[in-house]
Amino acid sequence: MAKSLPKPIFASFLKQRRGRHNLDKPTADAIAHAVRIWAMDRGATHFTHWFQPQTGTTAEKHDAFLSLVTNFTPGGEETTPIDLFSGSQLLQSEPDASSFPSGGMRTTFEARGYTIWDTSSSMFVQDGPNGTSILYIPSVFISYNGDALDEKTVLLRSNEVLSRAACDLINLLEPEAHVNHVYTTLGTEQEFFLVDRNMYSLRPDLKITGRTLVGQLPPRHQQLEDHYFGRIPTRVMRTISELELECLRLGVPIKTRHNEVAPAQFEVAPIFEEASVAVDHNLLTMDVLHKVAHRHNLRVLYHEKPYKGVNGSGKHCNWAIATDRGENLLDPTVRPETNYRFIIFLLAVLRGLEQHAPLLRVAISSSSNEHRLGAQEAPPGIISAFLGDQLNEVLDAIEQNRPIKNFSVPQFQSIKVGGTVLDVKVAGLPHIARDLTDRNRTSPFAFTGNKFEFRAVGSKQSPSFPVTVLNCAVTAAIGEITQALKEQTGDKPRPSTEDKLAVIRKFIKLTKPVRFEGDNYSEEWVKEAEARGLPNIKSAPEAFTYLKKPEHVEMLTKTTGIFTENELDSRYYILNERYAKDILIEAETLKTIIGQQVLPAAFEYRKTLAESAAALKTAGVETAPEVDALNELAPLVSALQKEYKKLSDVIVEFCDAHTEDANVHAQLAYKNVVPVIASVRDASDALEVVIADKYWPLPKYTELLLTV
To answer: According to the model, what pLDDT value does residue 377 have?
Structure first.
């Protein structure tokens, strides 16, 4: 833009981007003209406002630059085709607001909605069909009445309120700092599975639900622990390399790639960016990977648990707070025990967690992530924070007003907080710096040096809502700490060291329950968390109820003002409705697979065995092996038939259960339908073991996991 626009126009745009004033029509028209020329030079024929409805993915409607202009001449009318793109077209577009999830805020006859250009995220050109391209304009999506219908609007709001609250706190602590803007940074580690498209096309459960509803583990899967960080398979390496090049062209900075724990599971991760841009880039990366994988005859699976029995996939969100002076507010520096600004912001994060942990559990809850949470690759439903021994010692020492024990080694003060040097005891190898603390893979919210890693986010979901909720909780906590500091300071121009320490000690005590350093998977932690008063939310429908709790509603709607009550009610409805629909789709897909594929295969195999036994008996040949196989098969087929009947009945009951409260319907899905889906799977998987391979109608885990 700096190269394409006149300097006054670009300066005006930058002021608008910083919230100084609105874009006027001449500026918008000048930008629209420049971006059309830029895009068309790169083959663009269409433009689209690219937005994030509450579907977990992105949406786009393409419009051509082509327009027809009619001129009236003495000889009649003359119509000329030209390319046009006005400022008003750049600023907004109008999709159908009633056709996206709205939670009742919009009805079919109230169809008008608006997409509005998000100037904080760069426009980009992406390849289209037949050698053409499309101009993408990152946008927010609101209703005719101004309600947020998307994931991005509330994220941008949360960024702004957090910035204001953080600036107030910093300028109270350090009036000379003159910090005018604070922003959150985000790095999203994206995990995923790849599967051969030919195998994928033969698995209706994968195509419809994103996960396998039946299937036994192969003899060898991840138990040898040899896939993690192993050599990337050739076809996968080609795919990810092409993804990186495509993303580079779009301005997405992919930095890391590697094998994950399970067979056919991989990860890519970007360089950190401002949170709202990072969300855009994560969703764009997911979309590009779909396209690139297709070109290599692969299918990418983002479901959190596509294969039962092996690790699932997450989207680890590495989150921090930075100032417009380039300072990371969560950087402990060399001596965190005297870095009171760091400690105060650290406590603000912990206070947000301690007060609103259930909301973070809501933000990661879905029918798909439910299969992963609490397993051996993901944290449980109890939200806690891991700080590490060193930072815990800092907080404990400040609270108890005592010196820090074994905090640092003087000769290594230049190494990051409390670091030491590791001698590998091999002459040819250098000594290395050891980090502040070890890492805790079982913690849902772990401090990792200068940021928090929110590990519980699901691989399939957009990071927008989890980051929005986190921003909201931390904003409320910053406001609470700021108020406490003002009361402690009184009439003094700035808080003294004693004032700061008094407030710090108060919040250290308040946030103790949410700090946990041990094994989050252990039964002991479940009991201890209950004693601490931390909620153990075991299901998504249970989590959704916390969106209605008065203390959380108050924080989200009044304390921070991120949501209106209508927007919060709509999200509650959408989350519950989506959960119920997902479970019903899984149940009906499983019913189809069992009724039309698995049971017929079992009947055919049984018939073959019976005919073989009868023919052998007629010929006077021993039939014991065939009879034994029939005797083993028969009860398994009967058991599956019984479970199949239960599944059919529970689907009818669930569909007939009409209720006004969407959460009641979601609870019915969780309590009544989910257990039957599991029992049908168990019965089917028992049959898979005994039916001859050539009769089994679906590609098995061996083909799905081990042929990439």
So the answer is: 60
